[in-house]
Amino acid sequence: MSSSHPTTTAAGHTGGPADAPAADGVLATPRHVVTAALALIVAQLAFRAWALSGSWYRFDDANFMSKLMSDGLSADLLFHGFAGHLMPGAFALTAWNFSLDPYAWVYPAVELLVLQAVASLGALVFLCSAFGPRRGILPPLALFLFSSISLPAFLSWGPGITQLPFLAAIFWGSWAHLNYLRTRRFRWALLTMVITLAAIAFGEKAMLVFWPYAVLALGWFATGDILTRLRTVLTRYLPGVLLYGVVSIGSVVAYLVLGAGSSEASGSSDANGFALVAQRFLFESWAPGVVGGPLRWTWLEGNSAGWAEPGAVVSVLAVGVLALLTYELARTRSIALRAWWLVGGILVVDIALITAIRAGAVGADIALAYRYLTDTIAVTAMALALATLPLRGAVETLAPTRTSPFLDVPKRVAVATAVVAALGLFSSYSYAQGWHDDDNTRRYIETVQADLADVDEPLPMADGPVPGWMIWGASYPYNQVSRVLRPLGDKMAFPRASTDHLYMVDDKGHIRPAAVDPERRSIGAVDASPSPDQCPLRVRQTPLEVGLDGGVAGAGWWVRIAYAAGAEDVGRMRVTAGDHSYDVDIEPGYRSLYVRTGEGRFDSIGFQSLTPGSKPCLGGIEVGEVVPFGDPISGAEEGD
Q1: Which of 423, 368, 460, 487 minimizes the C-alpha distance to 98?
Q2: CA distance linking residue 452 with residue 442, whole number of Å
Q3: Closest by alpha carbon to 1, among 142, 190, 196, 169?
Q4: What's the rounded Cα separation, in Å, for the pair 248 and 595?
Q5: Tens digit of pLDDT for each residue in 68-84?
Q6: To the nearest whole percent, how much of the chain has pLDDT over 90?
């Protein structure tokens, strides 16, 4: 924060005590300031490297993985929306990782850490360029580096690979944009748009970076009322305005045409819904996170991400601290509150997006998930710098109006910064610990791999959904075991029909024999224990219908058919269940045939021998869902 009273010239340059060495010699030179800033960045990256070391793919990541492994990388995947997002860069990088090893975490972990380093260095470059390498840039830098707000997205591949480029673009794009505003050289505008488009390629939300661009131009590089400022910017920066307009409008149109229609999420459109989300977002998520909170997290069953749980005391204190800071800035610094427009615009848009897209299915509490607030910490840090330091080269810039007992006392600012950073680290550590403990997805995959380690031929598997805590059922068909575990396809097959053997993956990832839990059974002259010698019901070349004790609707059911066949009965048989027919081999002996049903409603099973002279004897027929029974094929115990 500002620790002195700079004077402002017509050109916007500052001089005076603010740029003088500190009386105690601490951070007395620009070199010392940059060294301290780099040390803070190294400390942040070291902590986040530790946090990543215990992470793995989670929840939305599994959905992301399943989509890519099922459909492969294609132009359709790159340039059409998925779950309401348009992110060709994220899919391309993920595909490259999968080509190396689909279940190796080291590649995404390194990429996330590199992107965090790019964003953190971007914050330092922006602050040094905007305000000079002075000790006043360290508090906003520390706020960005150590707040827990950006940690949840960072630890998860799907949110991280879309939002970290956005954070980097906020700082690097604003750095290039400032240079354009100062020099009016068009190459800086071009660089700004290159950075912006690179971020948008990883996630459409990066389009919000145009808000900081607009606020910087209108708030600090023009004067007068808002209309006068608009005219000034249009006149002075017309080539850049046209370029920014083409890119921003083009990006919005591209998203609306290609990506927006892919969302199946539901929202709340009424004012009450917006108010509830705003309350959670501002008072229980953002405000506590800015001052080092939330200190506590709640971990919901079936949701691998922790939600902020600051409690009433922490929330009230956080809002009070921010209110006091705002009052002190308004009292002692000119145009300081102008910087809050930078934060306010992003907060309003984020709240509106959560309300319109997410709150309908989950409720207002979804605003307690920090993955939806990631961008707010970057603009909050930037706004804090703009509210406390004079912007170099600006037409209008900040100046002190009176002495502040807090802002103008470096030691007090340093203590406050250290306290907020320490609290932020504590909140981040507690989140990382909870995240490491809730490692169900990795355990699930590793258990499957361990059970299949000694399998030489593909096992006949019953397909079905993975656990709901891994991928929501609404993501069908990408929540199916056959899609999530596709890289293990050399050890698993998912047939529609199988004789004697059928396996499935249980909720813990173990491979177990599958049994049909009957909902319907055959009726009529059917012997539950068929015999080739004494058989009341044989399958012949004339079609045969065996009735069930009730109707069956929809796909996904399994039929277990017991039959007996002699050596003379070996051949082929057609089985019809629903609107699907299967031609299966008849094998000698007492057999159990498993068949997956098709679509539509049916109340009987059809049979027909396709081999002259083959007359297998039908036994009992059961229709129902498959359930695991017996021990895992690896011999592992239930609790393993």
Answers
A1: 487
A2: 15
A3: 142
A4: 54
A5: 888 888 888 888 877 77
A6: 73
Q: What is the pLDDT of residues 101-125, one digit of tens each?
A: 988 999 999 999 999 999 999 999 9
pLDDT in tens, 571-627: 999 999 878 889 999 999 999 999 998 888 899 999 999 999 999 999 889 999 999
For 102, residues 6+ apart whose C-beta sits below 8 A from its C-beta are 65, 69, 487
SS3 at position 506: coil
Give the pairing type, strands 601-609 and 459-460. Answer: unpaired
Give the other-Cβ count within 10 Å of 156's Cβ: 25
**pLDDT of 278 above 90:** yes
Rounded CA-CA distance 434/298 in Å is 9
Both tokens assigned to 449: 């791999």
Burial profile 454-480: b = 16 or more Cβ within 10 angstroms, e = fewer: ebeeebbbbbbbbbebbbbeebeebbb
The residue-averaged pLDDT of 527-550 equals 82
- Provide, for the chain, the percentages of residues in helix, strand and coil under a 3-state DSSP scheme, each rounded to the nearest 5: 55, 15, 30
Report DSSP letters for 348-416, one per residue.
Answer: HHHHHHIIIIIHHHH-GGGGG-GGGTHHHHHHHHHHHHHHHSPPTT-SS---BSS--TTTT-HHHHHHH
CA distances in angstroms from 629 to 94, 457, 514, 625, listed in the order given: 36, 21, 6, 13
- Burial level of 630, CB count in 10 A (0-12/13-18/19+)? exposed
Q: Which of 106, 102, 157 is nearest to 371 (CA)?
A: 157
pLDDT at 504 (0 to 100): 96
- Residue 526: CB atoms within 10 A of its CB come to 18
Tokens at 282, concatenated: 């501002």
436, with CB counted inside 10 A (0-12, 13-18, 19+), is: middle
Q: How many residues does the chain have?
A: 640
Three-state helix/strand/coil letters over 87-137: CHHHHHHHHHHHHHCCCCCHHHHHHHHHHHHHHHHHHHHHHHHHHCCCHHH
Q: Which residues pair with 571 in a beta bridge?
A: 586
| Rounded to 5°, angle at Cα 214 from 209 and 220 | 125
Amino acid code (one letter) for 5: H
